[in-house]
Amino acid sequence: MTDTTQSRTLTIRIERPLREVYEFLAVPENVSQWASGLGGSLAFENGTWTAETPLGVARIVFTPRNELGVVDHRVTLPTGAEIHVPMRVVANGKGSEVLLTLFRSPEMTDEKFAADAAWIERDLAALKAVLEGERKSSC
Question: Residue 41 belongs to a domain with what CATH number?
């Protein structure tokens, strides 16, 4: 038995400086502009971020601002299950690379894991479009 789980790190190159990308991602309210999974229902009330999910209201904790480009978040589902979403912005020349790691939960099928990865890829493409002002570029 292993203490690790299958994971997949998805990346996208963004033709914007690291600080600009980080500053955008570090503002939770900007999630609605690119993350279709949480963004549409993200709300802040009584010191807590929440979002509607198919399972009910989830709580979200965002990493505090930092100098390392870390923009992780932790989602606590109504069931109490926690999903850690490691996310980083790193310099790539004069632009940036955004990395997001998807962990496979024990009950997740191959098909669901692939579908979640495809969903994240679409969201990262939306992030790129927002930050590059809808310009087309090769990724």
Answer: 3.30.530.20
